Amino acid sequence: MYTNLALKYDAPVPRYTSYPTAPHFSLLSDMDMYAGWLQALDPARPVSLYLHVPFCRKMCWYCGCNTKISHQDKPIAEYAEALKAEIRTLVKALPARFKVSHVHWGGGTPSILAPADFTGIMGLIDRHFDYTDQAERAIEIDPRTLDPETVQALVDGGINRASLGVQDFNPDVQRAINRVQSYDLTRQAVETLRSNGIERLNFDLMYGLPLQTTRDVEHTVDLSHALQPDRIALFGYAHVPWMKKHMRLIRDEDLPGTEERISQAKAASRMLDKLGYQQIGLDHFARPDDDMSIALKEGKLQRNFQGYTTDATDTLIGIGASSIGKLPGGYVQNTPALRDYQRLVMNNGFAVHKGVMVSTEDKMRREIIERLMCDLTVDLAEILQRYEQPADLLAPEISRLAPYEEDGLLTRDGSRLIVSEEGRFLVRTICAVFDTYFGKGPGKHSRAV
Q1: Cα–Cα distance between 292 and 337 in angstroms, integer?
Q2: Which CATH number is associated with domain 360-434?
Q3: Please, how many CA atoms are within 13 Å of residue 187, restricted to the half-sphere of its CB?
Q4: Which of 275, 407, 411, 439 counts the most CB atoms within 10 A of its CB?
Q5: What is d(CA 322, CA 84) in angstroms, rounded to the nearest whole number?
Q6: For residue 67, pLDDT beyond 90
Q7: What 3-state class would DSSP assign to 109?
Q8: Direct distance between the N- and C-terminal alpha carbons of the chain, in angstroms, rounded to an integer
Q9: Nearest one of 303, 308, 309, 328 to 317, comparing CA atoms
Q10: Dihedral of the CA atoms 63, 67, 69, 74 (nearest 10)?
Q11: What are the two backbone dihedrals, phi and then psi, of residue 180, each rounded to the nearest 5 degrees?
């Protein structure tokens, strides 16, 4: 039955790491808007920082990130200087010294930075910002490029959480995605990080990869569990060759169909549940004592461009080419063009080129979507009242939910919507009902399952 429903509703929809979603950002005509938003921030409220490093040594064909292959160190060193320049400009634009609750390094491969460049950037942040008591400093790591000098730099930079890319341990699947990474190499990376005090570890796994089977996914979950990560993200491969040309190197005939993708996702979820992990929203799993599980239990789980998070700040400042920032006034995105980014920030400016202002209704719809994505439930009447919106504003959306109710994907208890377990993997499709931008403009999205 579930397979039939998934086939029925398996349409391309956004991942909802923001609302409005990135395809609906527009070119900024007022370049001072971002500076104004920064100046208006409340110094009493902590902010978070996201730093993007768009470099890798080798292209993984499944990758949907903004990244560039570099076999030379010079371009990466020059980029590090640009990051420092943007941070200095940011500090000048802020109205006061702020506290930071989260620092997240993403990419690309952020650990590709030279140790001195990485510690230099972290030191710059340390000099200009304070940290909350439980501040998290996290970084995404490719175990294939981890060496002792890099690990020491992470320790010196105060990193206390690391996410390791794994995807799948089957060598055939690894070759099909151009990412060969043995279990032993991953185990060594885990042991090295933990022996150096970086004990909070996340693994990124994927289903729906070329040549991948349900048994492969189960085997990968089993091997991953042996290394005892605190969190596991189980992402469905998003095949978007119209956006990422390197994905054309993956043969369509090697990709599992919808039924097999469903089988893989469900099998992994069942295994992780039996192994004691708490399922978080759509595709994350965490140990019961992990901060993310606690946030879910307390109704404080959030969602941003890194996926599910415990980061409850109103402001996420993006630093680096293509990075996206979220502020009370709206979203801004830096230019993805490396040369343009470096030229702009090295001339003491910002490099934002897209963005969108958010209205009160946007914020209301964003909260509805976020609560559905995080909690699988939301009280529509409570949110409408809190945002001072008309009680009947969502009547059309409620009407369009009827097929989902009939198919058992959600239920209604008065004004409260409750997504069923059968509807969990289709929650993005349910969220799209509340998205007034969906289906308008140039945005193209990945499959729901």
Answers
A1: 34
A2: 1.10.10.920
A3: 10
A4: 407
A5: 16
A6: no
A7: coil
A8: 15
A9: 328
A10: -160
A11: -95, 120
Q: Is the pLDDT of residue 85 over 90?
A: yes
Domain locations in the chain as residue ranges: 21-357, 360-434
Closest C-alpha among 314, 315, 349 to residue 334 = 349
Q: 358-386 burial, b if ≥16 CB within 10 A, otherwise e?
A: beeebebbbebbbbbbbebebbbeebbee
Distance (Å, rounded) from C-alpha 154 to C-alpha 115? 8
Closest CA to 232 of 159, 290, 145: 290
Residue 184: what residue type? D
Q: Provide the CB-side half-sphere exposure for 282 (13 A, CA).
A: 26
Which residue type, as a one-letter code, is found at position 333?
Q
Interval 156-209: pLDDT, tens: 999 999 999 999 999 999 999 999 999 999 999 999 999 999 999 999 999 999
**What does the block give as tokens for 317?**
């400042």
Is there a contact between 34 and 366 (Cβ–Cβ < 8 Å)?
A: no
In contact, 235 and 205? CB cutoff 8 Å:
yes
The two structure tokens encoding residue 130: 């304070």
Length of the chain: 449
Homologous superfamily (CATH) for 21-357: tm_1862 like domain (3.80.30.20)
For the chain, percent of residues with pLDDT exceeding 90: 87
Distance between CA atoms of 162 and 63, rounded to whole angstroms? 19
In the structure, what pLDDT confidence band is assigned to residue 93 with cuts at 50, 70 and 90? Answer: very high
